[in-house]
Structure formats: C-alpha cells, structure tokens
C-alpha cells in the first residue's frame, strides 16, 4: 500500500496502486485519511536531507531537495549525451557537438538524452524509488523524463514510436515488485510529452538472463555480463518501427546499447534513448575514464 507522508493531499491517479501480481488495487479513502492524520501528528523528515517536511506531499522529499535537481547544464554530445568539456568538440566539420567516442564510432541508438546528472539528490531520489520502494517518487521522475522526451520530439519528426522500458529479469521483478523504468515511463506518458505519437509497450523486450550489477566491473566484464541478457519477445511489433527506449539511469551505456543493438537486429529502424539521469564523466566524482569507451567500441565491433 502506498504510504502518505504528510496530511492527505488531493488524490491523484497515483493513489491507484499497481500491485506485484499486476492487478490493480485501490487504496481506501478511509485508509488514506487515517494515514494522513498519522503523518500530520508525526510528520516525517525529508528522506534526502533530513529536514522536517513542512509542505503537504505524498513524497517524503523537501522542496529544496527537489529544486536542487537541475537539468544538465553545459555542452553535451548531441548523440550520446555525454558532458563535453573540450571546446574542440564544437569545432570541425560537425554541425552538432560530438564526443570523441561518437566521432569514432556511432552508437547503435540514434540519440540518447537525459534530464540530470546521476549524482546528488537525483541519485538519491532514484534510489528511494528502486530500493526503498517509495513509488510516489516515480511521478517526479516521470515529469523529468517527460521533459527529456519533449526535447527529443523535434528529432522524432511525426513518426509514431513504441515506448519500451528496459526490462528487469523476472526474479528481480518479483523481488522488487515493480520495474522502475515502467513506472517512470508511464508517469511521463501521462503528461503527453509528444502528443499521441507514443505507444507504451512493456512486452517487446525481455530480460532472459539476470545480470550482476555493472558497478565496479571492467569494460570486458561489463560486456560479458550483458551479452545475451536481453531478447526481443515480439519481433513483429518491432520490425520497421522506431523505438523510444526508456530507463532510469544511463551509467556506462552498456545496457541501452545492448538493447538498441538487438532491437535494430530485430528490424527497428531507429532507437532513441531517454533516461532520467546520466553519469557524466565531467563529474569527476563518478567518472570512469576510458573504460566506457572501450566497452562500447568493443560491443559495436562484436555487434
Ligand atoms: Zn530535503
Ligand atoms: Zn557521444
């Protein structure tokens, strides 16, 4: 059941909770009111900074923390969204800025875009959804994703697109109870960021093999880890179609590149990638120099 963190606000559709089994249950008004009363008497603190929550919200995150989650500022690669620091990236024959890696070899996706840098509050907000199961976080993350999709829309043209979330392995799905990419994509699509061009389809891709976290793996290990992990369940739906692949985070790009590669192999004409967050190498804190480049180049070479 969804938890109300402060007194009950107007009920949004998010009060309708999809349970693990895929059924839909409705949180009772009485239950919400009772929880709201409880939360009013014992208000919770912001789960990100610990400040007392003074504003009524079903998300236990304060306004200051939400405001601090800003879109990526500065130049980014027009293809993969990587942060660019070198002025040379903007010069030369290219009309649009490209990172060194995309200059050397085009990735399997047409363009990847993200809302914010995967650090600070945005990282914590995504963790709140994924690991602490605060589902109301998906509404805020969905708004961010909607902005990303709206930004990509000029590149889409008028072509209808299939919106495909990066799937979880069934065992992880059972364990977590939901796929965060599904929740975020659905929250974004409610806002109609590209009119009626987008059709959600979560059954196109399937995760056939569970993979260990990519964190801390070398480029070679990441490549081995992801190989054969995904499959196209319904190739007929993909053939000749443009796909908008959605995930919460673009970290090394290994996952979305593999998904894009197999979608293209199944006949998709173009694959776009929209994520809420992205690891930026320009953020030294989370930088993994060179390894990502090697991973993608090697994957492309083998793809
Ligand atoms: Zn806060
Ligand atoms: Zn790039």
Distance between the termini: 43 Å
CATH fold category name: Rossmann fold
**Helix-strand string:** EEHHHEHHEHHEEEHEHEHEH
Strand percentage:
15-25%
State the helicity in percent bands: 25-40%
The helix count comes to: 11
| Class computed from helices, strands and strand pairing | alpha/beta
**How big is the Rg?**
20 Å
Description:
With 303 residues, this protein is an alpha/beta fold. The protein has one domain (68-301): Rossmann fold (3-Layer(aba) Sandwich), CATH 3.40.50. Helix content is 35%, strand content 16%. The chain contains 11 helices and 10 strands. It has helices at 29-41, 63-67, 100-104, 120-130, 137-156, 170-176, 180-189, 219-226, 235-238, 254-265, 291-302; strands spanning 16-18, 24-26, 111-117, 161-165, 193-196, 198-200, 205-207, 230-232, 242-250, 270-278. The strands form 3 sheets. It has a 5-stranded parallel β-sheet with strand order 3-10-9-4-6, sandwiched between helices. Strands 1-2 form a two-stranded antiparallel ribbon. Strands 7-8 form a two-stranded antiparallel sheet. Helix 5 crosses helix 7 (180-189) and helix 10 packs parallel to helix 11. The protein is globular, with a radius of gyration of 20 Å. The N and C termini lie far apart (43 Å). Mean pLDDT is 82; it is low at 6-27 and 283-303. The protein binds zinc ion (ZN) (2 copies). The site of one zinc ion has 8 residues, from helix 3.
């Amino acid at each position: 059941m969804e938890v109300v963190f402060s007194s009950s606000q107007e009920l949004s559709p998010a009060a309708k909770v999809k349970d693990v089994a895929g059924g839909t249950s409705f949180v009772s008004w009485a239950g919400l009111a009772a929880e709201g009363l409880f939360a009013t008497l014992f208000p919770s603190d912001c789960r990100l900074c610990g400040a007392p929550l003074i504003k009524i919200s079903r998300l236990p995150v304060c306004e200051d923390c939400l405001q601090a989650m800003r879109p990526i500022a500065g130049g980014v690669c027009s293809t993969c969204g990587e942060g660019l620091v070198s002025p040379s990236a903007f010069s030369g024959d290219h009309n649009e800025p490209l990172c060194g890696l995309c200059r050397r070899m085009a990735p399997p996706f047409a363009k990847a875009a993200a809302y914010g840098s995967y650090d600070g509050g945005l990282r914590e907000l995504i963790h709140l959804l994924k690991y602490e199961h605060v589902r109301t976080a998906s509404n805020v993350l969905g708004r961010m994703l909607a902005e990303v999709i709206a930004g990509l829309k000029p590149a889409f043209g008028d072509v209808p697109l299939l919106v495909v979330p990066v799937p979880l392995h069934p065992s992880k799905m059972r364990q977590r109870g939901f796929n965060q990419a599904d929740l975020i994509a659905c929250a974004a699509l409610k806002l109609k960021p590209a009119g009626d061009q987008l059709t959600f389809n979560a059954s196109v891709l399937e995760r056939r093999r569970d993979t260990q976290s990519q964190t801390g793996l070398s480029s070679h290990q990441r490549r081995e880890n992801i190989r054969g992990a995904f499959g196209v369940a319904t190739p007929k739906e993909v053939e000749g179609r443009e796909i908008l692949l959605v995930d919460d985070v673009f970290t090394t790009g290994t996952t979305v590149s593999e998904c894009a590669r197999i979608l293209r192999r199944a006949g998709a004409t173009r694959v776009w990638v929209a994520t809420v967050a992205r690891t930026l190498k320009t953020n030294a804190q989370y930088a993994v120099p060179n390894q990502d480049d090697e991973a993608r180049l090697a994957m492309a070479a083998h793809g």
